[in-house]
Every structure is written in structure tokens, then in C-alpha cells.
Specification:
Layout lengths: L20 H17 L3 E3 L9 E6 L12 E23 L7 E16 L5 E7 L1 H13 L14 E3 H12 L1
Antiparallel strand pairs: 1-2, 2-3, 3-4, 4-5, 4-6
The structure holds zinc ion.
Length: 172
């Protein structure tokens, strides 16, 4: 946080570059960086590449985000989000670009994502609940936004250790 690449609109990824060595290297970097950090999603601007690509992989449970639906590893190129129901729910979010902090953010819980996959095929999916929050968090990165911009209540921003000590148990 503070690096200008995180605050700019990323450019759409050129479809003719999908599948090239440059593309595959970028995907490998995203996947490895996400795995090394124990993250559940990562957007290209977070590794200093301002293009519209994000990767997401949510384990079924046991992560610091508690129990939720699993999302297999996926690559989302030039994704566009449509909110299908504006009703929101909140989760404590963390971000590899805002290390050491957790913040409570409310977001719509029923969205559609239209995107290009790694085979250069147009795809569409529906995301609900926590999964909808994960997609919105990652897609925000492609528009230069961070979750801290979306805190409704600045008292619900905590260091990870304090979150674990004072918040996590109360939220169960
Ligand atoms: Zn993030």
C-alpha cells in the first residue's frame, strides 16, 4: 500500500498474448506469490503488472477466513462484475498488499463475473456469499481500489494479532 501501481486502473490484457511465454510467466508468478503468502487471491497489480488479470483459489476451510465454499484455482482475465443483488454482508478481509491488517467490509453477496479464461474463451460465473466478496476484493485491485477504501467503520480495522485475540472468537 502506497505504491502507485496499486492505485491505477489496470489495462485490459491483450487477448492475442494469452498463452504466450510472457503470459505463462505472469500466471506462474501470481500463483507462486499467492501460495507463498497463503493468500486466496492475487491481482496482477500486486506484483507490479498493471494488467487486468487475477487468480483466485479458496480452500474449503481451515484458512484464516474460517469455513466456506472452496473455489478451485482459476485465472480471470479482463473480468467484469455485475451485481445481481445489492444486499450486502460483511467479512473481515486481509490483503497481501496491506500486510498485518484485517478490516471489516460489507459487499453485495450475489454477483456475476464475465471474463476470459487462460484458453482465451469467454466465460461467466455466479458467485455468492464469501466467494462474491473474494471476487470483488480481487477485481477492485484492477481498478486501483483497496479494501481499506471500503471500510464503513474505521474502528473495524485491526492488526492481525489483535484481530485473532479480540475479534475472531466474538464473530463465530
Ligand atoms: Zn488484496
Amino acid at each position: 500500500m502506497g505504491h502507485p501501481v496499486l492505485r491505477q486502473n489496470s489495462t485490459p490484457y491483450l487477448r492475442e498474448n494469452i498463452g504466450t511465454a510472457e503470459f505463462l510467466n505472469l500466471i506462474t508468478d501470481l500463483k507462486d506469490t499467492m501460495a507463498d503468502a497463503g493468500g486466496i487471491g492475487l491481482a496482477a497489480p500486486q506484483i507490479n503488472e498493471p494488467v487486468q488479470i487475477a487468480v483466485i483459489e479458496v480452500p474449503a476451510s481451515g484458512s484464516r477466513y474460517g469455513d466456506h465454499q472452496a473455489v478451485p484455482f482459476g485465472i480471470y482475465i479482463n473480468p467484469v462484475i455485475t451485481i445481481l443483488n445489492p444486499e450486502t454482508a460483511g467479512y473481515w478481509e486481509g490483503c497481501l498488499s496491506v500486510p498485518g491488517l484485517m478490516g471489516y467490509v460489507e459487499r453485495p453477496q450475489h454477483v456475476r463475473i464475465d471474463f476470459i479464461d487462460e484458453h482465451n474463451t469467454e466465460q461467466s460465473l455466479i458467485a455468492e456469499g464469501f466467494t462474491a466478496t473474494v471476487f470483488q476484493h480481487e477485481l477492485d485491485h484492477l481498478a486501483g481500489k483497496l479494501y481499506v477504501d471500503r471500510l464503513a467503520d474505521s474502528t473495524r480495522l485491526a492488526y492481525t494479532e489483535e484481530y485473532a485475540e479480540f475479534v475472531a472468537d466474538d464473530e463465530e
